[in-house]
Amino acid sequence: MDQRISFVTLAVADLDASRRFYLDGLGWHADLDVPGEVLMIRTGEQLVLSLWDATQFEGEVGPIRRGEGLAPITLAHNVAAPAEVDEILALARSAGSSEVASGQARDWGGYTGYFADPDGFRWEIAHNPGPIGQVVLPPSSRAEVRSNEHGQPIGPQIAGWTPPPHPTIEAITGAHCTLEPLTAAHTDELFAELGSIDHSLWTYLGEDPMTEAAPFAQYVAGRLDDDSVEVVIRDGDGVASGLVALMRIDTANGGVEIGNVLLGPRLQRTTAATEAMSLLAGHVFDLGYRRYEWKCDSLNAPSRRAAERLGFSYEGTFRRHRVTKGRSRDTSWFAMTLDDWPRVRAAHEAWLAEGNFVQGDQRRRLADLLAAG
């Protein structure tokens, strides 16, 4: 058993009060939120804080200590396969654990068992096949990892790898938006939408706010002058209201980044904006790319939330990564891979489906659909 903790689980008396405190009060972000049952929050690269309704907790683990009984906390160690659960439980038993609950299949699709340490604190040993269970596993736990002749772990062989083509786009039409390649002819139309946007939207970009036509035209020309694929987003009314780029294109390794996102008021926090991001991701993966990246200033909380909401996974922070506008910037890295995309695409399609909206209000959140996948 390697030396790590995957989940810290707290049994709470009032889950709604905990949600208000952590999410609304502290501004934390939930990776999984099941009302009345559990709230899961990523607190590190491979650590999740799980707030579990006390009644649900007692139903699985046992009675909370009220004088006698269990302490309302468990420490979790996640593994890559059910057999490893049983192996570690046997190890705990041989080490003298005072109580071991054998592994069993759970109705949520996993396989778990428990043991108690000398003070009675419960460790959950878990195989969780879902996304939140996989993200806490170290790289060497992946089933695809092999060993070479020296006994060293190595990654899977890619048979017949063919680098994908440059991700140039033609017009892509969705139900709520249209994507098309940026040209100089878009300049005036885009300036009408982006020239007066809130100045705070430029804070984390490399440029200062542009409120006059001439500097904005130079900005568009500059975006057209690099090797990025520049994309115009038209909203459902056909108005050019946003810009985004496919950038740092690495065809040799099958990687591309989405960035330089600038959305006008007509697109901000809309179904059209989400669909645009989904269409671009689909375009990239359909071409054969293996990795799709999202990077942002680590202090840019809205961008971090957007990445996670869309299904990108946080991969770490590069400290002192860049100098932007005379400031030191730490950069947060997010990505989704070709392995993630089928699940993410299914969640996007379910969220965008007409039946998910009633009088413009969503019935199921995208985050919940992603977690359920």
Structure description:
The protein has 10 helices and 20 strands. Helices cover 27% and strands 31% of the residues. The model has no long low-confidence stretch (mean pLDDT 91). The protein has helices spanning 15-25, 54-60, 82-94, 131-134, 187-194, 213-224, 271-286, 301-310, 341-352, 366-372, and strands at residues 7-12, 32-34, 38-44, 47-53, 73-78, 100-105, 111-116, 122-127, 146-147, 153-154, 172-173, 178-181, 229-234, 240-250, 255-263, 291-297, 313-324, 327-337, 357-358, 361-362. The strands form 4 sheets. It has an 8-stranded mixed β-sheet with strand order 2-3-4-1-5-8-7-6. The chain has an 8-stranded mixed β-sheet with strand order 11-12-13-14-15-16-18-17, with helices on both faces. Strands 9-10 form a two-stranded antiparallel ribbon. Helix 7 (271-286) packs antiparallel against helix 9 (341-352). Helix 7 (271-286) links the parallel strand 15 (255-263) and strand 16 (291-297). It is an alpha+beta fold and 373 residues long.
Q: How many β strands by DSSP?
A: 20
Radius of gyration over alpha carbons?
24 Å
Helix-strand topology string: EHEEEHEHEEEHEEEEHHEEEHEHEEHEEH
Helix amount: 25-40%
Number of helices: 10
The side-by-side strand order for the widest beta sheet comes to 2-3-4-1-5-8-7-6
Q: Could you give a short description of this structure?
A:
The chain is of the alpha+beta class and 373 residues long. It has ten helices and 20 strands. β7 and β8 (122-127) form a beta hairpin.
